[in-house]
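Tokens in:
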């Protein structure tokens, strides 16, 4: 999946969470990030803290790569 917008990244996070059979509440409990914040990130919130987005990616096993 190519990620070019916050919405794309949020969608990738949501798809991975669902593939793992997790609810937002379950992910919140395991990651320490509120379910409301997870929902906002999954909906493409542009002002989400990068550290939280990266933590969710790590917790869900999402690998981010860059191309130069």
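Residues out:
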């Amino acid at each position: 999946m190519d990620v070019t917008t916050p919405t794309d990244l949020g969608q990738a996070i949501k798809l991975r969470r669902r593939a793992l059979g997790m609810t937002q509440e379950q992910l919140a409990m395991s990651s320490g990030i509120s379910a409301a914040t997870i929902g906002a990130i999954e909906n493409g919130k542009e002002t989400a803290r990068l550290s939280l987005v990266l933590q969710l990616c790590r917790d869900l096993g999402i690998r981010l790569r860059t191309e130069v």
